[in-house]
Write a structure and sequence with these properties.
There is one protein chain. The protein is mostly helical. It has one domain (11-78). The protein contains four helices and no strands. The protein has helices spanning 11-18, 24-43, 47-54, 58-78. The mean pLDDT is 82.
Length: 80
């Protein structure tokens, strides 16, 4: 026996029905804060500070991650 139930509702209606909180105002506030911070960082045009905020380890960390990936790929070929 197979029973199929189809529910036609919007995400907001489903959230209300399940008793979940409406997080849209919080998301909008956080996105506004993020946009303000990014605008401030870009207005100063201090790209070095912006890159340090996005990649704390810097270029060396990126190179180390790349080397780790390549070593994993190279090690995977020989094992088969």
């Amino acid at each position: 026996m197979k029973i199929q139930i189809e529910v036609d509702c919007t995400p907001e209606e489903a959230r209300q029905f399940l008793g979940l909180p409406d997080v849209a105002p919080m998301q909008e506030a956080l996105m506004q804060q993020l946009q303000d911070r990014l605008s401030d960082a870009l207005a100063g045009r201090d790209t070095e500070a912006l890159l340090k905020a996005w990649m704390p380890a810097g270029v060396q960390g990126l190179e180390q991650m790349q080397k780790a990936f390549w070593s994993q790929f190279a090690g995977g070929k020989g094992s088969k």
